[in-house]
Design brief:
The complex is a heterodimer of chains A (108) and B (174). With 108 residues, chain A is of the alpha+beta class. Chain A is built from five helices and three strands. Chain B has nine helices and two strands. In chain B, helix 4 (65-81) crosses helix 5 (85-95) and helix 5 (85-95) packs across helix 7 (116-128). Classes of the chains: A alpha+beta (108), B mainly alpha (174).
């Protein structure tokens, strides 16, 4: 997949853009989740992968939400699951098209 | 090959991930059956809680650690039962099929008090019970065929391709 591929996912009413997660990272998260370690380890794995996927700015925002307890770790897991689902479905939205749609919405 | 080939062994196993050695304590067959759903992390599931935490950190932080954990998990699955890992896995999965488990329970076998090698031996005995030699050979062959992607690990006991082909043909005719 190219750099212009991403997935838009809503978190608490706000849309965030996520780049595809490399397959190795997907497997890494699932491995950690299935290891039966304490809850902090899946969270650590998730944050590592989602931070890369979201990019620094969006990740800062999501981290703030987490610190303010406006989202909980389960929300990140749900976010990850949605990202995996979209990725497996193989129907990413090219950045250009979405920008066009956003521009059209703004023009209305 | 196992360090201790005895099916009665209650010795711990060891794994090495990212250069760190971990000791996996003896676990009864019941725990192996529960853990086998996640082959990639089997060793971690069987590890002590503190080691599980350390393994999780390695998998997250060290490139290649996840693959090592997977390889080590498969290795100890084979080592614990003195079989190839896929044979052990198949026998453990077979043991929870209702009819098989029922027969094992009725015969007095208890997965919480047996080693994984003993449990696999009991399942194997149940599967070949009453079969003639041909049926037994067929079962052995089915059990021994490695899963896709692991064909290179197959040791069929012969290096002669013709005799292997003849053996396979004889099974098909049967």
């Amino acid at each position: 997949m190219g750099d212009d591929t991403y997935y838009t996912i809503q978190v608490k009413g706000t849309a965030y853009r996520f780049a595809p997660v490399p397959k190795d990272d997907l497997v890494m998260v699932l491995t950690v989740v299935n290891m039966g370690a304490s809850a902090v380890k899946p969270l650590k794995a998730l944050t590592r992968v989602l931070a890369d996927s979201a990019g620094p700015e969006q990740w800062d925002t999501l981290t703030d939400l987490l610190i303010e307890k406006r989202i909980v770790p389960q929300d990140l897991m749900d976010l990850f699951s949605e990202l995996v689902k979209r990725q497996n479905a193989g129907s990413p939205a090219p950045a250009k098209q979405t920008r066009k749609r956003a521009a059209a919405r703004d023009a209305e | 090959m196992p360090n201790d080939p005895s099916p009665f062994s209650r010795e711990p196993l060891s794994i090495t991930v990212a250069g760190t050695r971990f000791t996996i304590p003896y676990r009864p067959a019941a725990l192996w059956v529960e853990a086998i759903d996640n082959l990639r992390s089997l060793a971690a599931r069987l590890a002590e809680p503190d080691d599980r935490e350390a393994l999780a950190d390695l998998v997250i932080d060290v490139p290649g650690a996840r693959e090592e954990l997977e390889r080590e998990s498969l290795r100890i699955l084979g080592e614990a039962a003195g079989r190839s890992w896929w044979e052990t896995g198949r026998l453990l999965n077979t043991s929870v099929q209702p009819e098989v488990l029922g027969r094992l329970v009725l015969s007095g076998a208890d997965a919480w008090s047996r080693s994984v090698a003993e449990w696999c031996a009991a399942v194997y005995a149940l599967c070949v019970k009453g079969q003639d030699e041909k049926g037994r050979v067929r079962f052995d062959f089915t059990l021994s065929v490695p899963p896709p992607g692991y064909e290179d690990a197959w040791d069929d006991g012969t290096s002669d391709p013709q005799s292997t082909a003849a053996f396979l043909a004889s099974l098909k005719r049967g």
